[in-house]
Specification:
Elements lengths: L18 H24 L5 E4 L9 H4 L4 E5 L21 H10 L1 H9 L2 E4 L2 H5 L9 E3 L16 E4 L2 E4 L4 E8 L6 H14 L4 E7 L14 H8 L9 E5 L3 H10 L2 E4 L8 H8 L4 E4 L15 E3 L4 H13 L5 H14 L2 H14 L3
Length: 360
């Protein structure tokens, strides 16, 4: 393994649409210098190179290794309509935003044109790319290890000295960070109604207070601070547990004790956590947004709700908590969906290897 330190960033005089792109070019040049050393001094000639193009490492790979098969992972192509931009009226997009995101794709476009094979994890994410370039992209999800991520009827977690276990009325919510892109504001706003309907329900929220996607709030305020303050006096916070970011094993236990798991997202990159929740046979209450609909059929292997409708969300969660036996078949079908279509060892890894090695 060889590491590298990216040097330099965009100059302040650079147009703000281009600052990310300039930084990516500099990173790409840094990688080129390292690869030239590998090639010319050590004789390294790879057959296949796999890279995520998002930060510029993949822009110049074909120039250094013209005979290698270059495979790049295309996660999300920004557009001014139909995706995350302009989806949430609470965070309206401006004309400047819509123009900027067009240029934001520059690194990906150069990488897609210059690679031999693209990979995208879902059909919807692939569909965001320009139609004339989509034939270069194969849909291959990274896969879920369903032998590891599985239900556990005796699972339990200890939070602040309180033991919460499978069979309790436990509502779970997971995101890398608690932010609007993953519907944190809608979830928090559903809590007063949910607690009124199910006074014994406990709520576990997994995620940090940083910002992975979207804009930071002014004054250093976190999304948790803003939206918890909005409902501050309407929620019994003794039944709401913010556990931050967890080690993977502890996170799996949270899924395994869940009686109702809420997953909300803008039309954007689909979280691994949703598929892992399905693999753990969680009862999923998810937003009726792309690409969620690609996996969830309402009433079959999960329940879909309007992303913005906090009352509908509370009602569906309460209904699930009140009638766990009625919804048990949805749990089982959720897990079967992942086993049949997204299992790491039997489905996704063989498909990924075939994609990487198909030209040899």
């Amino acid at each position: 393994m060889m590491g590298y330190q990216a040097h330099g960033s965009a100059h302040k005089e650079t147009h703000h649409y281009l600052r990310d792109f300039e930084g990516h070019l500099r990173r790409g040049q840094t990688v080129v210098r390292l690869l030239l050393k590998l090639r010319d001094e050590e004789g390294f000639q790879p057959d296949v190179v796999v890279v995520h193009p998002g930060w510029g490492e993949g822009i110049f790979l074909k120039d250094v290794f013209p005979k290698a098969k270059i495979v790049q992972y295309f996660e999300y192509y920004y557009q001014s309509t139909g995706g995350d931009v302009g989806f949430d009226s609470e965070f309206p997009s401006t004309l400047d935003d819509r123009l900027r995101v067009r240029i934001k794709n520059s690194t990906q476009l150069h990488s897609l044109i210059g690679c031999d094979q693209g990979i995208s994890p879902t059909l919807w994410q692939k569909s965001r790319y320009p139609a004339e370039l989509q034939p270069k992209i194969e849909v291959v999800h990274e896969g879920i290890d369903t032998e590891v991520v599985r239900p556990h009827s005796d699972a339990w977690v200890d939070i602040n000295g309180k033991r919460l276990q499978s069979g309790d009325e436990i509502v779970t919510y997971v995101a890398r960070n608690l932010e609007a892109y993953r519907g944190f504001h809608t979830f928090i706003r559903c809590l007063p109604r949910l607690q009124a309907l199910r006074p014994n329900a406990k709520v576990i929220l997994v995620g940090g207070d940083d910002v992975s996607y979207g804009k930071r709030l002014p004054g250093g305020q976190t999304y948790r601070q803003r939206y918890c303050a909005e409902v501050q006096d309407l929620v019994d916070w003794s039944r709401v547990f913010f556990v931050g970011k967890l080690a993977y094993g502890d996170y799996l236990k949270v899924l395994q004790v869940s009686a109702a798991h809420v997953y909300l997202t803008y039309p954007f990159v689909l979280s691994w956590s949703m598929l892992e929740a399905m693999s753990a046979a969680c009862l999923l209450i998810a937003s009726d947004t792309a690409p969620v609909r690609e996996l969830i059929e309402d009433g079959c292997n999960g329940l879909l709700v309007n992303f913005f409708d906090c009352e509908q969300l509370a009602d569906r969660v309460a209904e699930v908590l009140a009638n766990p036996d009625r919804y048990q078949p949805l749990r089982e079908r959720a897990r079967q969906t992942i086993i049949a279509q997204y299992d790491l060892k039997t489905i996704c890894l063989p498909k990924m290897l075939d994609c990487l090695l198909s030209s040899f």
